[in-house]
Amino acid sequence: MTPLRPDRLAGLAALAGVSLLVTACASGGSVLQAAAPQPSSTNTEGRVAVSYEGGLAVLDATTLEVVTTFDAEEFTRLNAAGDGQHVVVTTSDGFQLLDTLTPELTSLKYAATTPGHVVRHAGRTVLFDDGTGKTSIIETADLAKATDVLPPAQTYTSEAAHHGVSIVLENGTLLTTVGDEATRTGAVALTSAGDQWDEIASNSQCPGIHGEGTAADEAVIFGCENGALLFKDGKFQKFTAPDTYGRMGNAYVSGTSPIVVGDYKDDPDAEGYLLNAVTLIDTAKSEYEVVRLPQNVQYTFRDVARGPDDLAYILSTDGSIHVLDPETGKLVNEFPVVDAWEGPVEWQDAHPAIIANGDIAYVTEPAKKAVHAVDLKTGEKTASVTLDQTPNEIAAALGTD
């Protein structure tokens, strides 16, 4: 399910008086296509949302022109809802729907005490409330039709509240993390019959479980502090890191590739949030390896995306997008995009980020208050915009996988 950071959940809530505990994670979903344009409007396909201190901006996906702005809390997080229209905004009291096509910051909000991960997969959008351990499962197609009433949600509540994540597979199996306020230990697979949930598999060998990603053939990966946890064909399998502490916190995946690219950290005491290695997990061959990157290639949880040809695109502190071939673990190309930058002091701090929609990547450059669109096949900047505010998080209104 986001990007590697130490599990210092306590203390992240205080942001200039705003009581907000959110999770550090990347979108980590499959490579998705935007919904078809609406017949009565123009430039509506896959609009892009950007958060900044105290507000949100909706951008045209092609020109990056600002369509409109909205006031918001000081710090919010953004996730594609999966219907090609909405972006889920995590606020201090819930998951709020931003309609990028109307556009409108709607009053529709799924209440949560500590809103965390948003996962879209197999036609469902799944929300996890860290404060209660409640999972809310929404039919993604219902979100596009939402006007004055929130679509209904099927729910499951964990035995104990924790910083977690859930995903629902094609066949309705719910995968959800297990833990409490102090520790997280693994995951469980459940099936439902009405309001009754029955366990079909579990694994408790994944300390600090964090983040998720779904590769080809619905192979689901979770990150652990000592490796990774795979769920495939109804069973869990644990991969062990080569280091005593070898934390993967985020999975970057493509629904057409069996190989998961994960972030990797081998020093729990390291200062800052910059990383210099990746995890490669072949879910078809059950193979796991750690690849060390060149010293000039450093990144955070916001700086990896999957794009054309199932390649991975790493936005590094040297200002370039480095193209990684997951099949070989080799860097195969480099596209200069932004000026060199330094890692953030806190993970919430604005720093360059990358997301992908098909062949196009959207890259933020906070130092210049800029957002760029980049063709991932050529490295060409296709559009740029300078905002009045400093961009922080970014999300595209992606369609379902």
3D architecture notes:
The protein has a single domain, classed as 7 Propeller (Methylamine Dehydrogenase, Chain H), CATH 2.130.10. A hairpin with a 4-residue loop joins strand 32 (360-365) and strand 33. 1% of the residues lie in helices and 46% in strands. The protein has one helix spanning 140-144; strands at 14-15, 18-19, 48-52, 55-59, 66-71, 77-80, 86-91, 94-99, 104-111, 115-121, 124-129, 134-139, 154-157, 166-168, 174-179, 184-193, 196-203, 210-215, 219-224, 226-232, 235-240, 246-247, 251-252, 259-263, 277-282, 287-292, 304-306, 312-315, 320-325, 330-336, 354-357, 360-365, 370-375, 381-386, 394-396. The chain starts with 13 loop residues before the first strand and ends in a 5-residue tail after the last strand. The chain has 401 residues and is mostly beta strands. Strands 5-4-3-35 form a 4-stranded antiparallel beta sheet, with no helix packed on it. A 4-stranded antiparallel beta sheet has the order 6-7-8-9, with no helix packed on it. Strands 10-11-12-13 form a 4-stranded antiparallel beta sheet. It contains 1 helix and 35 strands. Residues 1-44 have low confidence and may be disordered.
CATH class: Mainly Beta
Do you know the CATH architecture? 7 Propeller
Distance between the termini: 16 Å
Q: pLDDT average, as an integer?
A: 90
Radius of gyration: 19 Å
Q: What's the story with the biggest beta sheet?
A: 4 strands, antiparallel
- Number of extended strands: 35
Number of helices: 1
Q: Percent range for helical residues?
A: under 10%
At the third CATH level, what is the topology name?
Methylamine Dehydrogenase, Chain H
Strand order of the largest sheet: 5-4-3-35
- Return the structural class: mainly beta
What portion of the residues fall into strands of 2 or more residues? Answer: over 45%
Shape verdict: globular
Unreliable segments of 5+ consecutive residues: 1-44
Name the CATH superfamily assignment.
YVTN repeat-like/Quinoprotein amine dehydrogenase
Number of domains: 1
